[in-house]
Amino acid sequence: MPEGPSIVILKEQAAPFAGRTVRAVQGNTTIEKERLVDQRVEAFRSWGKHFLIELPDFSLRVHFMLFGSYRINESKSWAVPRLSLAFDGGGEINFYACSVRFIEEPLDLVYDWWADVMSEHWDPKLALRRLRAQPGTLVCDALLDQDLFAGVGNIIKNEVLFRIRVHPLSTVGALPAKKLRELVDEARRYSFDFYEWKKQYELKKHWLAHTKRTCPRCDIPLKKAHLGKTHRRSFFCENCQILYS
């Protein structure tokens, strides 16, 4: 599943189409895709894992789910796009294996930009307040809660918890105040590291815990388990990541 930093990269790659008009649409989506024809793109935006195309009277939301992908100015010969947008002056964006839907309301009324870890409006104090209101929540679930950390996915979750030495089954309320601040700060810091490494095609080279077998600090096997209410894969060290409960 693409995480927030990858959606920001897509937004940047799509930027040349801003101000241009959709001339043709294709794809196997069930939405009324013909509405998009002759619509001028006012802006490309992102919120967490959502890619947003803002149009004069409505917007299009693309969510890549678990296996979604996209191609700009090229297509997959072996796959039918969920939605394909062709623009005046040439060029196209193709979306695959994703969810697309219209948003009728202004985006500023729909999205909490302060919760997006990649946004210039990100508010760490608000994130702390919201975390403290959920003392019984597991930290592995808290990091994946898009109302708290929009854009954080499983890779960022595992890497953040390893870096701040917190066991994924720790509860939010049991974390010392310093650790809770570290959790919030590292979620944003690592997201921007992810963004830079992804652009340089070297993201996996920097993973310390995600999908790894051995703890680089303790030189012992890492534990792998499907934890929390989401049952997403967690990779962690039972020696150096402290269980606060």
First-to-last CA distance = 30 Å
The CATH architecture designation of the largest domain is Orthogonal Bundle
CATH topology label of the largest domain: Helicase, Ruva Protein, domain 3
The fraction of residues assigned to DSSP E strands is: 15-25%
CATH class of the largest domain: Mainly Alpha
What order do the helices and strands follow? HEEEEEEEEHHHHHEE
Topology, pairings included?
Layout: H1 4-14, E1 22-26, E2 43-47, E3 50-54, E4 59-63, E5 69-72, E6 83-87, E7 92-96, E8 99-103, H2 107-110, H3 124-132, H4 139-142, H5 154-163, H6 177-199, E9 223-227, E10 232-236
Antiparallel strand pairs: 1-6, 2-3, 3-4, 4-8, 5-7, 6-7, 9-10
Question: Could you provide a short overview of the structure?
Answer:
This protein is α+β, with helices and mostly antiparallel strands and 245 residues long. Helix content is 25%, strand content 20%. The protein contains 6 helices and 10 strands; from the N terminus they run H-E-E-E-E-E-E-E-E-H-H-H-H-H-E-E.
Describe this structure in words.
This protein has 245 residues and is an alpha+beta fold. It has two domains: 107 residues, N-terminal domain of MutM-like DNA repair proteins; 124 residues, Helicase, Ruva Protein, domain 3 (Orthogonal Bundle), CATH 1.10.8.50. It contains six helices and ten strands. The strands form three sheets. The chain has a four-stranded antiparallel β-sheet, with no helix packed on it. A four-stranded antiparallel β-sheet has the order 2-3-4-8, covered by helices on one side. Strands 9-10 form a two-stranded antiparallel sheet. Helix 3 packs across helix 6 and helix 5 crosses helix 6. It starts with a helix and ends in a 9-residue tail after the last strand. Belongs to the FPG family.
